[in-house]
Every structure is written in C-alpha cells, then in structure tokens.
Amino acid sequence: MTKLPVRLRAAPMSTRALLVATSAWTLLGASAAVAQGVGTVPPAPTGTAPVPEQSTPSAAASAANTTIAPSTPSPGEEIVVTGSRPIAESIAAALRIQKESPALVSVVSADAAGRLPDQNVAQAVSRLPGVGVQRDQGQARYINLRGAPINWTTLSIDGINIISPEGRDARFDSIPSAIASQIVVRKAVTANMTGETIAGNVDVITRSAFDYDGFHIAGKLGGGYVELGKRQEYEGQLVLSNRWDTGVGEFGALVSGSYYQRDMVTDNAETDWEVVGEDRRPGNEDRVWARETENKLYRLTRKNYSVSGKLEWKPTPDHRLFLSSIYTAFSDDESRNNYIFDMDDQQSRVPTSTAACPVTTGLAANTTGYADVCAGNTPYQGTVYGIDLNSNVLIREYRQSVFTNTVGGDHDLGRIQVRWRGNYTRSVDDRSAPAQLNYDSGSFGTNGAGAPNRLTVAYDLTDKQHPLVELYRTLRSSTGVLSRGARVNQIEDFGATLARVRGLKAKDITDAYTGKLDFSYDADWFGGTKLMFGAQYDNRKKESNERLLDITVSSSANPYNLPLNYSAVALANDPAFKGEYPLGYLFRYHGKKQSIALVDQAEAAGAQYVPVTANFYDVREEVWSGYGMFETKMDWGSIVGGARVEHIKNKSSAFATVNGTSSLVTIPRDQTLVYPSLHFNWDIDQTKKLRLSFNTGASRPDYDQLRPNLIVSDANQTISGGNPDAEPERAKGVDLYFEWYMQPQGFFSLGAFYKDVKDTLFDTTRPFDSDLLNLNGVDRSGYIFSGIANGGDGYIWGIEGAFQQQLEGYQADLGLPDWMGGFGVLLNATYNKSQAETPDGRKVMFPGTSKWVMNASLFYEKYGFSARVSYQNRTKWIDAIGEFDTINGVFRGTTGGDEYWARDDELDASLRYAITPNFEVYADFANLLNGPGRRFAGVSARTMEVETFGRRYTGGVRFNF
Known about the structure:
By secondary structure, the protein is mostly beta strands. 6% of the residues lie in helices and 54% in strands. The protein has 6 helices and 47 strands. It is globular.
C-alpha cells in the first residue's frame, strides 16, 4: 500500500465519500449527467488534475477553478489519505464541470496520467446515460444521443465545431480518445453553441501543459490478441509537457502522440430482399424473396493515430495566448473476397400464373425456380438452378483525417472577459480502392442452354444468425428442366471468368475557417448576472472528386491480355480460410499486390482513370452567427437564457445530366435562422437539483445532399440526385431533470425530454413538384424524383435514469470486512420513443432511435487494484428507410421494408493494478459475448447482414511521471 502525500481537513466519512465516489465514476469510464447544489467547497486535493480552460464562456469554464465533491467535509480533524487511487482525480474534474454547467452535461475525464478508458471518442462516451453508439466492424463509430439520428449530434474540439470527413454525420472513430483530457457531452443547447446542434454536442477538450506542475511525461504501451483469425492488436501513447516561468511570463508546451492498430478478419453473410411482381400465386402479398445472398470475407488492418502540440503563453495570470495543432487519422486497409449468388438472375422467367399450385408440383422447363412456390421454394428455403455467380475481389485503402489548427487568447479584464479564436481545419475522406476485380458465370443462353455452366444453389435462410448455402453443378434435361448435379466444394473449381477490372481514386476534402469572438460582463444585477455576447464566422468548402478506371473484358475482347481464369495462381495468396463462418464451400484468398498489379497492367497498357462527373460536387457554405445570453444567480439557483442568430449562405455546384448531356450547374441559397433557449436550475438543497430547459436547433442537409447533380430522363420521366432545395430539420425541445447526491457516496438522477421536429428529412421517391428544370419548353414538374426530401413533422421523447452506489462507508454497518467497501455498481437506462412522417406519408421511428439504451457495471477499486465488468445493451433501431410501392395491388416495401439494426449487446471487462504511483499494468477484455452485428429488412426473420468479429484481449503497462 502506498501512502499518498494528500492531507485534507474533514470528517472521516466525508473524506471516504469523496475518494470512493470519484474513483467509482472513473472506473466506469464516464459519469452521469449530474450536478449538486451550488455551495461552498474545499480546495482541490494536491495532485488533482485541473479542468482545462474552456473555449467558450460558460459556467462550465468558471468551474475550472472550483472543486466539487459529492459531499462538503466539515472542518476539523486532519485526515491522511492512504492507498493508490489516482483515477479518483479524474472524477473530481468531471463533477466540477457537471455541477457548475448552466445546462445539462455529461463528462468523461482523463486521470492525472491522461488516461481515458477506451480507444476512440465514441467508445469513451458510450457508457454515459442516453448515449447509443453504432458500430462498424465491431468498432464504435457514430453516436445516437437520446434516440436521435446521428446527424443531430455535432463534434467539436476545444469548442471549435469540426466538420467530419464524412460531412455532418460526425464520425467519432476517427478521433482517438488519447488526445483528450476530457470529453463533454452537452445535451441541452445554449445560445453560445452552434445552431446545427439538435440532440447535443460532443466537445473534446485537449490537454494543456498548465494541467501539470512542471515537466510531465506519461504514456502506455500494450499489445493484444484478436480471437477470430488469430490476429494482433498494438497500442501506444506518449505525452510530454513542460512549463517555464520567464521574465515575460510563463510558457507551456505539450506534445503528444498515439497509435492503435488492429489486424482482423470478419465473418459476414448478407442477403438482399425484394417483392417479386411476377410472383402472383395465392399468398404473394406476404412473400418477400431473397434476390441475392452473399458472403463478404474481410482481411483488414485498422489504425487510429494522432499527433498534437500546444504552445501557450501567460504574460500575466489574467491573460493567455495559445497555438495548437492536432492531426488525427483513421485508416482501413481492406482486402475482401465477395461471393454473390444472384438468385433473381432470371427473374423474367418466373411463372406468372395466379392459380394455386397443382397437386403435382415441380420446376417448369427453362426456369430457375426463383420466386416459384410451385417448385417447392419458400422465401427462406429452397433451391435455385443455373444462376449466376458474381465473384468480386476488392482492395480498399480508406483514410480519414482531421487536421485542425487553432490560435486564440483568453483575457480577464476585471468585470470583462474576452475570448477569441481563429481556426483552420482540413478534413479528408479518401475512399480510394486501388483494385476491384469482377468474375461472372457464362450466359444462361436461349431456353437455358448455358445453364450447365452456372451454379445451382440450395439456400437455407431460416437461421437468422447463419444464413447458409450449398453449391452444386447444374444439369439440364432434354426438355429444358434443370436439376442439381455434383456438389461444388472449392468455389474456384466452378470456373468463373474475369469480366471487369476497376480502380478508383476518390477523395472528399473539406476546408473550414472559423473566427470567434466572445465577451462576458459580470454585472451586479439580482444576485449576480453574467452577460455574454459573441460573434462567429464560418467559411467551409467541400469538394468531392472521383476518377475511375473501368474495363469490361471477355474472352473475345481482352485488349490488355488480363488473365481470365478465376483460379489463376498469379492472384492466389493464402488458401486457408481464417474465419469460422460455415460457408458451405472453400475458397482461396487473393493477394493485395497481385490484384493491384492487374490494374497497373491495364493502366500501363493504355487504360485511363476518367473523372466521374456524376459524383462530383463543390458545396460552399458561409455562416454568420451572433448570440446574446445571460446567466443570473438567484438564492434558489440560476437562470440562463438567450438567443442565437445564424445567416447561412450556400452555393452548390455539380453536373446535371439531361437526356445524356451533362453541364455544370450552380445553385445559390441563403436563409436566416434564430435559436432561442432558456434554462432554469433550482437548488432544492445541498444535495438535490432540478433542471428545466427549453431549447431550439436545426439540422441542415449534408453537403452531398445539397448538390444539384440531377440526372433527368425525359424518356422515363424521372429525376434523381441531390436536392439543393431541401430545408433544414428544425426542432424545439424541453428537458426536465432531477439530480440527487445520496450521502455519503450515492447518486441518482431521473429526467424526461421531448423534441418537436419540423420538415423531417428522408431519402424518398416522389413527384418532383418544382419548375426548376422546366427547360426548353418541357414541363418536368410531374416527373418522379429519387433523392433527399422533406417529409412532415415528428417527435422524440424519452425518460432517462441513472444510479450509482458503492459499499464504501456502509460495510461496517452491514458487518462486512473493510476490503468489501471497494465494490460498487452503476446503472443507467434511457427509454426513447419517436415518430416521423416520411415524404410518402408513412409514420416511422426516426433512424437511430432504440426504444431502450442501457448500461450496467459492477466494479471494484481498493488498494491500488481496480476491476470492472460492463454490459451495454440497445434495442433495435432503424438504419435506413426502405422504398415502398404498390405491387400486385399491395402497398409494401419493395426491398422488404425499412432496414433495422437488431439488438446490440456488449460485454467488456478491465483490470488495473498500480505497482507504484508512477507505474501501472492493465488488461482489457472486449466483445466477450462475441455477438454478431445484424441488420434485417422489415421483420427480424429477414436478415440482411450478419457479421462477427471475435473477442479481443489487450494488456500492457502505463507510466506517469
């Protein structure tokens, strides 16, 4: 046991409460959105990591100089605190911000060594109340805050709003948690926040050299094992900082770097569904058929890495100037073998009789059996004959990066405070795929003459977790009836030939410039009023460019002499399947270098990368903002109110194509939006608080949705593409939360929220209803438009609760030994309900709304040892809205209905032991349930995708000096 040099003057029970409650929260990697009544609090214990200075004027910023504890120790006896609990320091910082914030927030805080519990920002905040995450390849990526769509949550770094590489859908897996000292999730919007925020804002607060007393070095080094495919993980982090007192003030410098790599394979099966118009037998109104089923077999390496630096100067204690630069990147190097069994390949041959099946059923001549109940098939089980096998080899080299640079100053001039910031951020989404090779079966031929050169597939989709296929040769009788022959075990033996070679160079670049100026004035009105005013200017440009090399080849037309045999040795890499999925066949992996060499060979022989003008766009956006707000302290609490005004100017350019002729089109738009908000904070007593807030916000269409890249076909009377006329989704919200610190170390909160939404945005197919394209005397207002459009109104409401308790302080009364005081529990749950009207008049849940989002953690911390088991659950949610149409007299989803993610269950565990105050060993265990990520269409039985990723085990060392 290590004796810490910390001395507090307090009653023994209160001191224990402080240490226990704070350490418990950090173990869970987060804290609930809670606050205690404003009151007198003691100075922070020595070594407590201070809250970094905030980038916007708020009570949260002023809280940086105030220590908040779950209880207020009474003066008196001096207590010597023993034990090693450095993580308790992080929670003291988190509680300070949460308690003093003028609006509802939740905080994840690093400890004094700069340690956050999870690898990226999405995972780090996932245990907070009301936070649901969406995963990709098992890795947390997007955030649904209190049931809202992902584009309603904004991302900022040190208070500067960041446009994600993907656009307004903020991707949080590209931001390593290693750069953060704190992550503040603001759930109730105030006037000094960007109006694009509806659900909330995730603000990543970076480290400062002034967080530490002098020279500081901290880091970690670890490695791990991924169970599926027997792969590896690597992680490392280093922070160096120092501060110097000179004759012209104090200087501070901090540099940091982080690196994370995971090598992995993925087991994947996917099925696309459709309503078949030719299926007219009785009962067809309930049948949805699998038009194709496939396996995507991944080998990939994912990396997150960051480099950051900050230089600060305090010429006097009341003035600070700084310059910071952060580069973060996410990369996904992927090799994918993709086998698509094209079940509806010969859909036009489906018998169209409306009569019931005859007593003796069977396969009709020259048909495949697809969507044919009289052949003995059902949507979930059966056999299709003589279908096409599409085999694809894909090599992707995705890179997403954010490079943000900020210069700023904080100046305290007595009653007046001034904050200014200038920022330049470049976000890059590199979607390049250096090689895609497509192999196809031969033609079905006239009356099925070519069917023997194609596969027969027995499919069984009844197991939602393991859709299965078996492959056979195809036989054809003299009368044209198809049947199955010998089993095909090695898929390359089927002999598909090379049909297409592609290489893609695609990059989206966003350049954003921001200037901010904030003033606050401390007036003597009422019990004390802070007046705040500010102005902001944002200038953003996003441009998307794609260049594609695309070659169609065949045995009769192969100008670049490419190898046509699918099982060519030149492309083979590792014959052993590294996954565990019961495929029903064997295959050979293709090598990355060998695949790219085919594209390079074609380019060297004269093939060219050609600009894809249909996908080009250039969207420019200017936002002029101003706000005014006040915070008035009362005997009973505080009132915070104000309004923000934003004037937005957009200019969107893209290629519009009318009857095959393309021309560059530029469409300007501008609008002014006003966002009022009002927040009440009642201090019921020293331990209880009641919050009531009214707020507004708007979510503007994403940049690619605003592009005017319309494709017009007069022959088909259709229009498709972006929609520069799409209006923002506008929301008005109310939050009511009760918070209670149960002495000596418990916590409970219960809250409700409601948002009313206008002009909901959905992808849709509907009449164009605009004269914008009525050119050359042609009225196109009645054409059918496919793209983004505003629907009707909607709402989201929910109830959120959190509870935390630890045995520390109770074990003696319960007759338990002292060591059992380290046990504790944290529970939180959010119930959400939403409804939105689509452009076609249907009422659906908002994409991203899970009815329940729940967290439960059991933890132990004492004597320098900590352990945590954490369970997360969110129920199903809509991923995308399906297309609906009337087929055979029934209005139904043409692809099976709306697309859902199934329930997500996650179980993680961690162990820590502090060998010395400066040296710790750790072990993390992730994805212990190894549950699949699964999507389905309309009903749960209709699996669209199921993926598994394997359990992960990581361990290593951390140091802090």
